[in-house]
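protien #1 (seq + structre)
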Amino acid sequence: MSGLEDEIGLMAEEAVRVVKDRTGETLDFSEGSLGIVEETLDEASHYFADLPNEEASKLVHWFGCYLLEVGRRNFTSGTSKGSSLSWWSVNRSSMWQ
């Protein structure tokens, strides 16, 4: 993996840790885990404006990276699933139609 992919993975793991610490649930990088993320972010929306900027930024980065990592692990094209962010270049065209 590239340095960027490594960094995204590390930040995504922070989202996993946050959810585990707050709810006891485990994010597993599956599409199904996105419901847990949605519930967690809904809860966070109630106090987000009161967070210090640095904490708010961390929360956004961690969960944004978690979403990217779910996409990378589940929607990567080619024979080595999960090997790169190539899913973005393959799937983005359908987003704009």
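ok now protien #2
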Amino acid sequence: MQRTIEKEMEEYTKQFIPTFKKLSNSSKWLDNNGKIVKDKNKSAKGTKSLDFEFIYNEITYYINSKYSEGIFCGGNQENAINEIEAFINVALKNNDDNIKFIALLDGGIYFPKHEQKLEKLINNNNYDKVCIMTHDNLIERFSI
């Protein structure tokens, strides 16, 4: 189901952000220093491969996307939140000015239950490097 949602998301989003593309499940990861790597064995513990990328105003944005249905939090949703936290912590270490990261969270589980916790994590560090948004926010912010 996740792959179907991601494919549909890619097709829809390309209408608004032409450079938006789905990454293969094993193509790009973050290492412990927030650098993009192509080897899963070099990826930071607790992180998953990056889901999407696009270029906007000469900045490459990498997206870690999570989607949940319903408002009740099961084990998989809690794991997803842990993955997002790991992603944010590692992404904040990236020092390339031409790369930024987005935690794309959609579904009943993420807002508002976890929004404040994740926003605080970013605000205490570098909000310009990593941001949290929904798919609707993404299109609104980056449509050309």
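Residues 17 and 142 are 7 Å apart (CA to CA).
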